[in-house]
């Protein structure tokens, strides 16, 4: 599976770090053997003194944001369906799909799956005591960094490069890699999972 790449840089020095999204590379292993994909994102880790992949713990705000996106998509769908002439017989409607309906349908189903997975993960992590960990060193002293919202457009973040003071920037990169390497599993406290 190809993963998205991002480049972080600093406006005051020559720091440049690339970050590949870690979709499906990290998971929580439950006692019954079931695995739940971990939410991850880039962080500046104080211990590694580097840009690292880090855990992102699900929150009520995160769930509300996903739900809001889903409701907006469903509203778009309702508006689109309203434009379908009422007198068209149903079979004609299905034979000739309305423009934009299919992509919207698949967007909605993707968003529903994402929300479901988020809720499952949030419930599984309800008892979680420790904060999110850096996935390289396991430390918890790290500053989460956002990913760009617009493709092909560098963004200046309101986060400074520690020890330098320059603002960090981020942009998407056209680079793609095929994911290799083994999936890493963790317990629900974010500690490397060990059998026995
Ligand atoms: Zn710098
Ligand atoms: Zn670290």
Any overview of this molecule?
With 196 residues, the protein is of the alpha+beta class. The chain has 2 domains: 2-57 and 132-186, no CATH class; 63-118. It has helices at residues 60-82, 90-95, 101-124; strands spanning 2-10, 16-20, 26-29, 35-37, 40-45, 50-55, 142-144, 155-160, 167-178, 184-186. A 4-stranded antiparallel β-sheet has the order 2-1-9-8, with no helix packed on it. A 3-stranded mixed β-sheet has the order 4-3-10. The two termini are 31 Å apart. The model has no long low-confidence stretch (mean pLDDT 89). The chain binds zinc ion (ZN) (2 copies).
Hetero groups: zinc ion
Give the termini distance in whole angstroms.
31 Å
Radius of gyration computed on alpha carbons: 21 Å
What does the largest sheet look like?
A: 4 strands, antiparallel
User: Helix count, per DSSP?
Assistant: 3
Mean pLDDT: 89
Q: Which strand-content bin applies to the residues?
A: 25-35%
* Structural class label: alpha+beta
Output the strand order for the largest sheet.
2-1-9-8
Low-confidence stretches: none
In short:
This protein is an alpha+beta fold and 196 residues long. It is built from three helices and ten strands. Strand 3 and strand 4 form a beta hairpin.
């Amino acid at each position: 599976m190809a993963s998205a790449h991002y480049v972080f840089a600093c406006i005051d020095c020559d720091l440049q770090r690339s970050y590949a999204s870690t979709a499906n590379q990290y998971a929580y292993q439950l006692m019954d053997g079931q695995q739940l994909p971990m939410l991850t994102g880039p962080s500046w880790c104080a211990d590694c003194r580097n840009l690292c992949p880090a855990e992102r713990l699900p929150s009520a705000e995160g769930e509300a944001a996903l739900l809001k996106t889903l409701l907006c998509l469903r509203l778009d769908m309702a508006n689109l369906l309203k434009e379908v002439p009422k007198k068209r017989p149903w079979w004609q409607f299905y034979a000739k799909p309305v423009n934009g309906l299919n992509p919207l349908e698949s967007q909605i189903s993707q968003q529903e799956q994402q929300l479901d997975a988020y809720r499952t993960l949030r419930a599984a992590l309800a008892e979680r005591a420790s904060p999110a960990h850096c996935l390289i060193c396991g430390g918890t002293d790290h500053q989460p960094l956002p990913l760009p919202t617009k493709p092909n457009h560098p963004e200046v973040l309101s986060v400074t490069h520690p020890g330098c003071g320059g603002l960090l920037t981020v942009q998407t990169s056209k680079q793609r890699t095929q994911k290799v390497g083994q999936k890493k599993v963790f317990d629900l406290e974010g500690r490397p999972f060990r059998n026995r």
